[in-house]
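Many introductory courses stop at the sequence. We go one step further.
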Amino acid sequence: MFSYSYEGRSMVFVEFYLSVPVNTAVQDVRDKVALVKAQFRDEIDEPIIERFNPGAMPVLSYAFTSDVLSPREISTFVEQRIRKRFQTVPGVGKVDMIGGVKREIRVFVRPDRLRALNVGVDQVVRTLQAENQELPAGTISSTQSELVVQIKGRLKRPEDFRRLVVAQRAGGPVYLEQVADVVDGEQELASMALVNGRRAVSLDIVKTSDANTIDVVDDSKEVAEEVRQSLPPGMDMVLVADSAKSIRASLDDVKKTLIEGAILAVLIVFLFLGSWRSTVITGLTLPISLLGTVAGIYFFGFTINLMTLMALSLCIGLLVDDAIVVRENIVRHNAMGKDHRQSALDGTKEIGLAVLATTLTIVAVFLPVAFMGGIIGKFFYQFGVTVATAVLLSMFVSFTLDPMLSSVWYDPDAHGRKKTSGLGRALDRFSAWLDGLGNLYVKVIGWALAHRRSTMAIALASLVGAFVLASRIGGEFVPEPDLSEINVRFETPSGSALEYTQKKVDQVTKIIREYPEVISTYATINSGMDSGKERAGIRVRLKPKAERTMSQKQLVVAIRQRLLKVAGIKITSVAAAAESVNGGQKPIILSVQGPDLVVLQRISDELVAGMKKIPGLVDIRTSLSDPKPTLAVDIDRSQAASLGLSVAQVGQALRPLLAGDDVTTWQDPQGENYDVTVQLPRSERYTAADLDNIYLSSAFADAGGVPHMVPLTQVANITETTGASQINRRNLFREVMIDANVSGRPAGDIGADIQRLQDSMKLPPGYRFQTEGQNKDMIESIGYAVTALLMAVIFIYMVLGSQFNSFILPVSIMTSLPLSLIGVFIALFAFGSTLNIFSIIGVIMLMGLVTKNAILLVDFVKVATEQGIDRTTAIMEAGRTRLRPILMTTAAMIMGMVPLALGLGDGAEQRAPMAHAIIGGLVTSTLLTLIVVPVVYTYLDDLRLWTGRMLRGRQAGAAVAVTEPGSKAE
C-alpha cells in the first residue's frame, strides 16, 4: 500500500496479489474506508474508490477551440452538451474536462467594508447558505386531494444575491452588496489544455477496467461524429490523442506478418517438394488449423488480440511441419514404386510415432507457459493456450486430411515424372542438390562418429562461448516500441502560478514543433497524474515510422538535449508513450523507506548523486521536490481567547477568504446548477502583506450586540516558510520515490549498476531500499519463466520416454536443447535485441521446436536397428533419409517468422526479439543436432549395452552361486 499526498488531494493505492479477484479487492477497500470516513473533517469530499491499471489512462482525447466563442462559452457547451453525451457510451468510466472555465457566482468580500460595518465573513457564509434554499413544509390534505407545501426560497437571478441582508447595524440592514462584490463570473482557472500552442478545452475519455479499448474508442468516435454536427458556428473539434491507434497498428502489423509468413512457408514447401499438388495438400493444413484455432479461441473465452494473433503468427511455420513430414514420407514411398493409396498408408504409419512425439513435446512446453504465475503468466496465458491448440489441430489434420488426399489424388511428380518447364527443371536441380547434400551429410556423420570426442569438444566449446556472449546481451522487462508518440513532462519551480507554467509550455512546444517529424502537440497543465499547477505534460504525435528520417529513439534524445537548455523548467521525462505494459511508468523506480524524512532526504540525495554517474540514466526525479513556499500562521492561543477567538474560528474565517468556499448553488432557468463561492478578490490576496488587512469577528460584542472586529495580526504571527509539496508513504512508512528513464542501455543492465550502488551504501537501522517498476517485474518474471522452463524440460522427457519406451533415448534427443542456446545468444547479439519477456518466451518455445529434428533422426535409427541393421549404417541412412524433411520443416518455421523478426511495422520492436531468439536457436540447433545428436546417441547406446552386459554378468554370477551349494549336497 502506498500513497501520494499533495495540497488538497491524496491518492492511496492498494496493491493485491494477482490471485485476488478485482471485485473482491475493491469491496474490501470500500469496507475499510467506510470504517474511517466518520473521522474525516467536514470539508473533506467523499472519497472515490476505483480500480486502477494501465488501462485507466485516457483512451481518447478531444480538444475544442474557437476564435469566436470565449473560453467560458466553450466550456459551458462542452460541459452541458458534449461531456454528458460521452459519459453514456458503453465502457466509458469517466470523462475529465481539462482547461474548462465553468460559470460561477463569485462573492468577492471586501475586508475594509467588513471591518467598517463590523460584519464577519462567517455571517456572510451563513446568510448565503440560509437564504438560498427550497424547503418542504409539509402537506395540506382534504378528503379529495393533497397539496404539498414548499417554501420557494431560491434566488432566481445572480443579481438577487446582492440584496441579501447579512446583518443588522444601527437599526438598519446591511446588504451583501455593501460588503462584497457579487459577480456572475467564472471559476479561477485550475488546469489548462493547449493544442499546438493554442488554448483549448479538452475532454479525456477514460474507459472502465473491463472494457475493450477498441470498442470504447469506436463507440466514442461515433458519438463524436454526431456531436460534430451539432457544434455551434466557429467551434472546432480536434482529435488529439487516440490510444487505439497504436493497438490497431500493432494488430494490423501482426496480421500482415501472419499472412506474409504463411506465404513464405508455403513457398518453402513448394521448393522442397517440387510439386504443386503436394504443396496444396500440405498447405491446406494452414487455413484449416488457423480457422480451427480461432474457434478454439472463442471456446476458451479469449479475443482476437495482440497475444493470440502473435501466437498464430509465430506458429505459422509450425502448423505445416507435421503435414510436411507426413507428406514427404508418403512421397518417399511413392518413389519406391508403391501406388498412392498404399504409399499413404505406409508413409503415415511409419512416421506417425515421430509426428505424435514432436507435437506432444510442443504441447508439453506451452502448457507450463500458459499457467505461469505473475505478470508474465497473465501476459502469455492466451498465447500459450493458442499455440497448443493450433499445434494439436495441425497434427489432427496431418493424420487425417493429408493421407486422405494423398491416397485419392494422383501426383505424377511424386512418382518420378521428369519436369519439362523452366521452373520444373529448376526444382529438379534443387532436389538433386538436396540429394547431394544428403550424401555430403552422410560423410560428415561418418567423420563425427569416428571422432566422437572431438565432436563433443567442439559442441561444448560452442556452448561455453555462447554463454560468454550472453553476458554482453542486455536485459529489460519489455523493449520500447516505436508507436510514433512521445510523452514530455516537466516542472516549473515549486509554487509557480498557472500563467507562468503556460508560458513555459508555449516555449517548449514551439521547440518541439520545429522538428519536421512532429505532427502535433497536446499539452496539459495540472491534469491526471501530473497534479499541480507547476506540472505539465505534452503528448507529441509523430509521422508514421516509414515517413520519418529520425527514429523515435533518436527524436527522444534530440528533444531532451534541446529542452535541457530551457531555463526555468526541470525535465522529468522525455520518453516513448508506453501505455500498454507498464502503464506509462518509468523503467527505473526505486523506493527509499524509513521513519525520518530528514534522514530519507540525506539517503536519497546520496543515491541520486551516485545514479547520475551511471551511464544511460536520464530524467532522474525524486518525489522530494523543491519545498513549496508557505505562510505559517501561528495563533497566540491566550491572546485569541482573551479577544473571543479560537483556532477553529480563525481557520473557518481564513479558509473562505483565501481558498474560497463553495457555500451554496444557484440554479439557472435551464435547471443547471452553478457554485456560489465566497473569496477575497485576487488583488486582496496577492502578497503576504494582504493578510494584515483581514479582520475577524469576535465572540464578544458591544452593548448593541455588534461583535468586535479583531485584526488577524493581533492574534497570530505570520512568517514565510516552506513546506513539502508532496508526501509519499509506503506500507505506513515515509518514502522517497526515485524514478528515471534509460537511454542507450537496457534497463536491466542499469538496474544491476544501481543494485551495486545500493549495496555500497550503509543505511541506518530502520531504513531500506526497495526496487519497483520494470526491474522488479523482470526479476519476478525470470523466476516464473525458469520454473516454466524446468517443467517444460521434465514434461518433454516424460513424453519422449512414454513414446519411445526408453529412459535413455529421450536424453539423446534432448541434447538439442542446450545446443539451441548458442543460436539464441548469437541472434540476440546480432540483431541488437535484449533478454526480455518476449525473448524468454521465445527460448521456452524453442525447447519444444528443436526436439523435432532429433526425434525424426532417433526414431528412424531406433526402427532400423530393431530390424537388425548395423547401428552406424542405421545412423547414416537416417541422416540421408531424414535430412530433407528436417531442412524443410526448419526452413518453413524460419521463413514463417522472418516477417516478425524484421520488425518493420508499428510497435514490432516489442515482438521481434521473440522471433530473433527462435530463428537463431533453430539455425544452430539444426546444424549441431544433425551432427551432435548421433554422436550422443552412440555414447548412450554404448552405455545401454554396457549396462546390459553388467546386469547379465551379475545374473549369471548369481545363478552359479545358487547351483554350487546344491552340487555339494549331492
